[in-house]
Amino acid sequence: MTKRALITGASSGIGAALAKVLARRGWSVALLARRVDLLNEVVRDVGAAAGAFPCDVTDLSSVRDAVRNAESALGGPFDLAIANAGISVPTHSTKFNIDDAESMVRVNVLGMMYLFDAVVPGMVERRSGQFVGVASLAGLRGLPTSSVYSATKAAMQAFLESSRGELAPYGVRVTTVNPGFIATPMTEKNRFKMPFLMNVDKAALIIADGIERGARVVEFPRLMSALVRLTRFLPAVVYDFATAPYGRRKIDPPKVKR
Ligand SMILES: NC(=O)c1ccc[n+]([C@@H]2O[C@H](COP(=O)([O-])OP(=O)(O)OC[C@H]3O[C@@H](n4cnc5c(N)ncnc54)[C@H](OP(=O)(O)O)[C@@H]3O)[C@@H](O)[C@H]2O)c1
Questions:
Q1: Most ligand 1 atoms within 8 A of CB, residue of 12, 143, 224 to mutate
Q2: Residue 86 covered by a domain
Q3: Would you list the DSSP string of 20-68?
Q4: Residue 82 belongs to domain with CATH number
Q5: Is 253 inside a domain boundary?
Q6: How many domains does the chain have?
Q7: 125 domain residue, yes or no
Q8: Does residue 252 lie in a domain region?
Q9: To test ligand 1's pocket by mutation, which of 106, 178, 186, 211 has the most ligand atoms within 8 angstroms of CB?
């Protein structure tokens, strides 16, 4: 029987690439995002096994409606739900902008929890399913000029980790995905050299493989993951010294004007 997957943030980047991989592997996929024109382009590439559903993940009723519509269009509840929608706005504590911060928290953290709220109770009832959150290596330690983004990704990681243990007895799997730098519209605005920058199609294959084998954590590129994991053992004084130059990086003016 065809399995059904839902992906938020499927109009571009990782979400769109992942939708294509999963569809090629036989999944029916529901694509959620705000830009319906882009979603429809992805649906055209993916073929009959996909459907586009407009959704703003910062609006609980929009998420619930999109999930309900997608379930009826695809013929039943989802076996796999991927909270991938995310935004990243460079920040600096000397130019802190609460509106940018709030947007990131709403999309990255609440957006994931709204999807969780919409799909996980059904999975628990059915004693099967998988919930995936696309966090980031940036959540493993606070990065200069990414304080809010790092904080949202750390919040996702903690939430997913706690949920994993709670849901395991109910047959529901939880997977945390921690990518490094991936070439997508999100990173193309970066004005600094991104170490180990990976092609988005390669990233989507790694994520799909991890999801399908039921991995708890999918983290890549491997070397970048190992380096970031190593920094977690550095004492604060050494970490501060090593990252100080990045804190002096120039950042663009705030995206959200007050
Ligand atoms: N690229 C990287 O290097 C990298 C590294 C680690 C983690 N990640 C994470 O990977 C995920 C995907 O990022 P990406 O690089 O593929 O970025 P992207 O190309 O900019 O895609 C972001 C997606 O999120 C959707 N989105 C944003 N706000 C939304 C909202 N309010 N409601 C619904 N959808 C919304 C966008 O769709 P609409 O604008 O059409 O709504 C878009 O489809 C993010 O969570 C990001 O933090 C990326």
A1: 12
A2: yes
A3: HHHHHTT-EEEEEES-HHHHHHHHHHH-TTEEEEE--TT-HHHHHHHHH
A4: 3.40.50.720
A5: no
A6: 1
A7: yes
A8: no
A9: 186
Task: Say if CB 38 and CB 12 are below 8 A apart.
Answer: yes
Structure pTM? 0.96
Q: What is the pLDDT of residues 111-166, one digit of tens each?
A: 999 999 999 999 999 999 999 999 999 999 998 899 999 999 999 999 999 999 99
Tell me which amino acid residue 25 is: R
Q: Residue holding tokens 């990681």?
A: 157
Residue 170 is a catalytic residue: no
Taking the C-alpha atoms of residue 108 and residue 106, their distance in angstroms, rounded to an integer, is 6
Q: pLDDT digit string (tens) for 209-228?
A: 999 999 999 999 999 999 99
CA-to-CA dists, residue 41 to 33, 51, 106, 155, 250, angstroms: 12, 11, 26, 32, 35
**What's the token pair of residue 196?**
């180990």
Q: CB burial class (10 A; 0-12, 13-18, 19+) of residue 183?
A: middle
CA nearest neighbour of 77 among 121, 110, 135, 108: 121
